[in-house]
């Protein structure tokens, strides 16, 4: 991939149910993974909801096969960090695909860190029929990311700032 290349992010829910989709720009890669940029004005859509962002953000796609996608947002967003637990993201040319597994780790502007949507995860693991290995992967990933965000381990230590600054300059 090359800098500024258009990327389509396609998230689904288990069972190939449509979820969030949006366009981003490829920013580059570092030791943490591939970075995608979503400037102010990015159009996000999912069934029953859509919006145009009034904030800029960057998305980290881990290179190590980790089961999450991490978003780091500018000061206009409610959350500084928003990490979706997913199946390991997969590249399909210039399309990034992952299955959202409900659990989210969120760091709010006030510094508080929460694990969100545990109720949705519990419901979907039954109604969508998550296999036991997928449940274990999502729970393990959420625990690891929660600990990393709380302690400020890279890339949750401001590493994203340099990538984010490229969108707002």
From TrEMBL:
Pfam families per the UniProt record, alphabetical:
DUF402
Keyword Transmembrane (UniProt): no
Alphabetical UniProt keywords: Hydrolase
Query: Which InterPro entries has this protein been placed in?
Result: DUF402, FomD-like_sf, Ntdp-like
Tell me if Cell membrane is a UniProt keyword of this record: no
DUF402 domain residues are 71-151
Lineage top rank: taxon: Bacteria
Name of the protein described by the UniProt record: DUF402 domain-containing protein
Look up and give the organism this protein is from: Nocardioides bizhenqiangii
């Amino acid at each position: 991939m090359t800098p500024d290349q258009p990327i389509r992010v396609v998230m689904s829910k288990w069972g190939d149910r449509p979820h969030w989709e949006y366009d981003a720009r490829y920013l580059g890669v570092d030791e943490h993974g591939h970075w995608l940029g979503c400037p102010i004005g990015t159009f996000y859509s999912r069934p029953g909801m859509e919006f145009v962002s009034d904030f800029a953000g960057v998305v980290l796609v881990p290179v190590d096969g980790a089961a999450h996608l991490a978003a780091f947002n500018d000061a206009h967003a409610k959350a500084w960090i928003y990490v979706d637990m997913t199946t390991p993201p997969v590249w399909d040319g210039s399309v990034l695909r992952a299955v959202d597994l409900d659990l989210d780790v969120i760091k709010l502007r006030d510094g508080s860190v929460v694990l969100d949507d545990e109720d949705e995860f519990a419901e979907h693991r039954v109604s969508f029929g998550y296999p036991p290995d997928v449940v274990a992967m999502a729970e393990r990933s959420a625990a690891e990311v929660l600990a990393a965000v709380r302690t400020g381990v890279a890339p949750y230590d401001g590493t994203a700032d340099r990538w984010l600054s490229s969108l707002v300059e």
